[in-house]
Amino acid sequence: MNVPTDLKYTKDHEWVRLEGETALVGITDFAQSELGDIVFVDISTEGEKLNKEEVFGSVEAVKTVSDLYVPMECQILEVNELLDANPELVNDDPYGKGWMVKIKLSDVGMIDNLMSSDQYADLLGN
């Protein structure tokens, strides 16, 4: 399982890449492999302010639909438009072109409450 060391992680299998006061959020390699072939990504929360662990969208795979949760209090600044026509990017490149939303953090310090790559790998049993 691919667990990049430069990211932070949630127990719900989302990753966060901090970029100043904003961050990119997506689902982990583990999550996409568990879901299987992703056929649709539904995110309609652009511009909204959400509290920690609120649903910001959902991802639909061949056999299941799974909710997506924001890792901390934030505002959804941007949705990855590439996923509209190419939801399989989440499977092919979950930490790159398969990112889901760009968020503005209410408190950048909250990133420290997320798991490190080592902690996330331990959660997965690696």
Count every beta strand, where a strand is a DSSP E run of 2 or more residues. Answer: 9
Q: Report the C-alpha radius of gyration, rounded.
A: 13 Å
Helix content: 10-25%
CATH top level label: Mainly Beta
Structural account:
- By secondary structure, this protein is α+β, with helices and mostly antiparallel strands.
- It has a single domain (8-107), classed as RNA polymerase II/Efflux pump adaptor protein, barrel-sandwich hybrid domain (OB fold (Dihydrolipoamide Acetyltransferase, E2P)), CATH 2.40.50.100.
- It is built from four helices and nine strands.
- A hairpin with a 4-residue loop joins strand 1 and strand 2 (14-19).
- The chain is globular, with a radius of gyration of 13 Å.
Q: How would you summarize what this structure contains?
A:
The chain has 126 residues and is an alpha+beta fold. It has helices spanning 29-35, 82-85, 89-92, 117-124; strands spanning 8-9, 14-19, 22-27, 38-42, 49-50, 55-61, 65-69, 74-79, 101-105.
Question: Notable features of this structure?
Answer:
126 residues; alpha+beta; OB fold (Dihydrolipoamide Acetyltransferase, E2P); six-stranded antiparallel β-sheet; three-stranded antiparallel β-sheet
Topology at a glance:
Blueprint: E1 8-9, E2 14-19, E3 22-27, H1 29-35, E4 38-42, E5 49-50, E6 55-61, E7 65-69, E8 74-79, H2 82-85, H3 89-92, E9 101-105, H4 117-124
Antiparallel strand pairs: 1-2, 2-3, 3-9, 4-6, 5-8, 6-7, 8-9
